[in-house]
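Sat 14:20. Reprocessing the chain from the morning session after the first attempt stalled halfway. Input below, unchanged.
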Amino acid sequence: GNDYGLAPVRGWSSVRLVPARSGNDYGLAPASGRHGYNPLRPRPSPPMARIVPQGWQALAATGAAARETETLARLETALPDTCTVFHGVHWTRVGGERAFVGEIDFVVVNPAGDLVLIEQKSGFLSETGDGLVKAYSGPGGQREKRVASQMARSTEALRARLYAACQPGAP
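Finished this time. Tokens:
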């Protein structure tokens, strides 16, 4: 017996708790033994995409936000570790006397600098002659937004910002 209520299993090496600096985040290290097998040692996880911002797993989310969290988890595990996923990229574009604001739900970047912009919609979409439309309820009543227009605005806003940033002498 031990303080953890664990009993040794015949034929398996024992496990001892050590500080996490031993090379894994679980604080487990294999004890020396003839078998070298440790049932409590975590198996190496496959490389995963990097998610920005960090800490999204700790957020309590419901409704549409929960769907985005599920999508983040899927992107993290399905994409290789050479990809970065930016979540909730907000943008602002001023044109004349108007300001346009928006958000891109997910921006996936690969090592070559290629981008994939993902606009996630939760709930029902309507198919119209102008394309897909999402209905939103708000203080002024129900409002419809064309998905293609929203994606075009976001794409152009990001393209303009990236173009400006890539010019010689840009900050």
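The radius of gyration is 24 Å.
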